[in-house]
Input
Amino acid sequence: MTPQLAVADASALTFPPGFVWGAATASFQIEGAVHDHGRTPSIWDTFCREPGAVVNKDDGDVACDHVHRYREDVALMADLNLDAYRFSIAWPRVRPDGGAANPAGLDFYSRLVDSLLERGITPWPTLYHWDLPQALEDRGGWASRDTAARFAEYAVSVQEALGDRIGTWTTFNEPWCSAFLGYAGGQHAPGRQEPAAAVAAVHHLLLAHGLASEALRAGDPAAQVGITLNFTVADPADPGRPEDVDAARRIDAVHNRVFLDPVLHGRYHPDTVAAFASRGLELPVQDGDLETIGTGVDFIGVNYYHGDAFSTLAPEHPFQGADVERPTSSPMVGAEDVHAVPRGLPRTAMDWEVQPDGLRRLLERLHTEYTGPAGVVLYITENGAAFDDEVAADGSIEDLERTRYVEDHVRAVHAAIQAGADVRGYFAWSLLDNFEWAYGYAKRFGIVRVDFDTLERTPKLSALRYAEIARTGRVANGGSVPG
Ligand code: FCB
Output
């Protein structure tokens, strides 16, 4: 069938002029070419080889082979009318082993940036999307303060190579995952399950953000610098039960406030400090650190997939994580007794509940409580969904659930803007099906399908619909996808 693409509906919702429509990826998830340019292993290359850590023993060796196919991928982005492309830079490609800058690795990103600019697509790089050089992990990783200084040096070398063409820098993607899934829960590389190391990692990731932000601004006073955080919207499962209200407050402290407060208010929130103290843990703050961390951002990148209802009572049927053999722990340091409780909402293939209104509430809260008063703007830097796609006999992929997910969330963004939140752009996660961390290639988030045997790319219905949203700056006011 040929989908009806144009938004002819006069009641369609219109976004402000200049609103940025983009799509996002990350280096380890799409690049492959793990030995090209003298790249050395990252913690994810190592973790993939750890028995039982990743579903199906998948790894990033080939992934989407983007390093060799980036021109084709940029052409695809142009076909999809994207204004901007959010990608990440692989630290072990541009500074192998975390050592000296590597011109061959930097040159790959330089060529990528040039081809984006040739197509009128704004390059939107993130400096760290989880692929720490393994050599730095061997020296303590994010639990070591020294890694923060190494990160700032790395940021400077990337800016020296690309800064003449890049105006907007994101330091980190989702430091929550790096600290808590990487060092406490063990679901992500480096797979450590040491709550004390996770709390140290929080502070060192933030310090790295602050040091790099200062260095990037010293290199280019006009640079726009920000950080991308992943948020939950924590509701009490039973608002009438004080333990559940408290559970939601504690999750907010160790998931959302833990990074928001130091970046935007220059201090750790008392609830966060108290949650860690309940485990006998303390953030390793030294004199001057909070001034560095609170140096100021121009934007906050918002990654939102789902909120949750929380309770101290375990649900009968808990949500399922990745089906891996390697044992893991709770990543919720200081709130290990809290459970996410299903609310009966529709779920994605990740077993995540679909709740677009959570995004509206999140954006309004961020604007009111954090970014608005600081004059900081918001971008949705990731939003999307994994579903089990079916390829029709003619090769098309009519991914109605993903299409509906994207449209519903785009409408939620529009509602937040109407309510006053200063949101300037939306990036779909993800441009391509890719390596979904511990889930390997089993979960597909792409608006473009990747056949992992042939590496062929095929835009799904969601991509075609999104291309229309990007072209027109408008989204149908509800009901364009049946279901
Ligand atoms: C986010 C990550 C991204 C992707 C999506 C589904 O947490 O930033 O790399 O895995 O989830």
Q: What stands out?
A: The chain has 15 helices and 15 strands. Residues 1-6 have pLDDT under 50 and may be disordered.
